[in-house]
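Deliverable D4.2, example record:
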Amino acid sequence: MTLFVLVVFGLTYLGMALGRLPWLQLDRSGICLVAAIVLAAGGAVTPAGALAAIDFPTLLLLFALMILSAQFAASGFYDRAAAALAAARLGPARLLAATVALGGGLSALLTNDVVVFALTPLLCAGLLRRGLDPRPYLIALAGAANAGSAATLIGNPQNILIGELGGLDFWRFAAACGAPAALGCLIVHIVVWRLWRDRLAVAPAPGPAALPPLDRWQLARALIGTAALLILFATPVPRPLAALAVAAVLLVSRRLASRTVLAHVDWPLLLLFAGLFVVNDALAATGLPARAVEALTAAGWRLDSLAMQLPFALGASTTVGNVPAVALLLAVWPQPPAGALYGLALLSTLAGNLLLQCSLANIIVAERAAAAGVRLGFAEHARCGIPIALASLAAASAWLVGAGHLAPL
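Output generated by the structure prediction step:
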C-alpha cells in the first residue's frame, strides 16, 4: 500500500509542477481531485478518513474571503480602480508607484489572485490608449500583488493555510510580516523603474475617458464587511466563523443576486485544496515524511532555520508551486513554532516573484494580458523577477533572523 500511495503522490506533484499531466486535459485542481478519489478507491484512505483529512475551517475561510472579494467585483470597484489608475495624470514614476501601491495594498486584504484577475484587463486597455507599453506596469502589478499579499494571513492561499493550521493571530502576523512585505513592494518599484526607465520616459497625458460604472451602495457594503472582518479578527471569534458571518450578510441583498456573487468564487481552487489535504494525509500515514523530518533534525538541519526555509521556498516556487509545497510541509511538521510559520509564509510568497511560473498571480496577469492583446513573456518577466525576488528574500531573511523568528542555521 505504501508503494501505491507513493506512486499516486508522485504523479500528483508531477502534475502540480507541469500544470497538467501529459496527454490528459486535467489541470491542477482536476489532478488533486482524481488523486483523492484514486486513493479512496484503492483503499489507501477510507471515505471517512478522506473527509477527516480535509481542513474545512481553512476551506470555509477561503470561501468566505472569495465572497467578500466578489462583493467588490460586483460593485464595479476593481474596474473603476484599474481604469482610474490608467487614466491618471501622473508621470511614469508616479504611475508605476501608484500601480504598485494599488496592487500591493488590495492584495493584502482581498487575496492577490483575485485582485490581479480583475485589474489586469482594464489596466492594459487604459495604458494602451495612452500609448504606453503596459508590460512594465503589469510586471509591477504582479510583483506588488505577491509582495503585498505576504503582509497578512488572508493575502494569498498559502498564508490562509498557514494561519489556520498553525493557529496564528492575525494582527501579530501582520506586525511580523508587514514591514518586509512593504519593503518588497518598494523593491518591486525600484527594480522595474531602473530596468524599464527608458521605455517609461514619456507618458502622454490621457484624453477624456468615461470610467466604468460604480455601484456605491454595493461598494459601501463591501467596505463595511471588510472593516467588520478586521475587527472580528481581533476578537476570540474563530476566523472562519467570523468570515462566514460577514459573507452571509453580504449574500443577503435585495439588489444583487446571490448567484452573481457565487459565480466569482474560485471553486477549482477549493477543490485543489481539498484534494491536496487527502493526498498529503495519505502520505503522512505511511510514516515516511515523519522519519525524513526526524533524520533531518538528527543531522542538525532544523526546519525552523533560514538555511532550510530559504531553499525550500525557492525550490517550491520553481517546481510544484507554493500552495502544494506548503500544504505538504505542514502535513509532516509537528507543532511548528509561530516564528517559523512567519518565515514560511513570507519566504514562500516572496519567492513567487522569481519567474513567471512561480506564482499563480504571475500566470493570471500574463494570461489576462494576452487576452487583452499584450504579450508578457518569460524573459521579460525574469529580467525583473529574479532581482526582485532575490533582493526581497534577502531583506526578509535579515528581518526574520534579526527579529528572532528564524535561526540562521
